Amino acid sequence: MIIDEEVLSGISRQLEAAYPEEACGGLLGRMVDESDVAVVEAVPLDNEREDERRRRYLIGPDAVLALERRAEKAELQVIGFYHSHPDAHALPSKSDREHAWPWYIYLIVQVQFGSATNTRAWRLTEDQEHFAPVAVDARESM
How would you class 23 by CB atoms within 10 Å of its CB: exposed for 0-12, middle for 13-18, buried for 19 or more? Predict the structure, then answer.
């Protein structure tokens, strides 16, 4: 996954500002080739979770629909979603796996004591039992 450095910095700032709660958003971009994507825009979304916001997030169906419409208008695709793990590693949780869709990339940012410290990307395997790591290649001004 190729991502513009400014987009990645914006994600980090949003997630740091939401600390100690989880925050989330959508990733818009395009296919580069059969196996790689380029993320050109991050869209902050509300964490609609009403409880356990320090350990869980929820992106509601209306937000997903609005994200799809925004992508279509910009001639982009929804590549995936991002969220923070406050004071926890950038590894998918059991809850992340249970709520993931196999065709999206999930960018997880570890926010330790209010600072983004580690960013990793994941994609659900075809059997939907595990996550496979996705390389993150941050580049200047895409």
Answer: buried
Instruction: Report pLDDT digits (tens) over 85-142.
Output: 999 999 999 999 999 998 999 999 999 999 999 999 999 998 999 999 999 999 997 6
The pTM (predicted TM-score) of the whole model is 0.96
Q: Which amino acids are annotated catalytic?
A: 22
Identify the CA nearest to 11 among candidates 122, 120, 123, 124. Answer: 120
Indicate the class that CATH gives domain 2-139: alpha beta
> Is-contact 121 133, C-beta < 8 A?
yes
Q: What does the alpha-carbon distance between residue 113 and residue 125 come to, in Å, rounded to a whole number?
A: 31
DSSP H or E run through 68: helix 61-73
Domain boundaries, the chain: 2-139
Q: Please write the tens of the pLDDT for every residue from 47-87.
A: 999 999 999 999 999 999 999 999 999 999 999 999 999 99
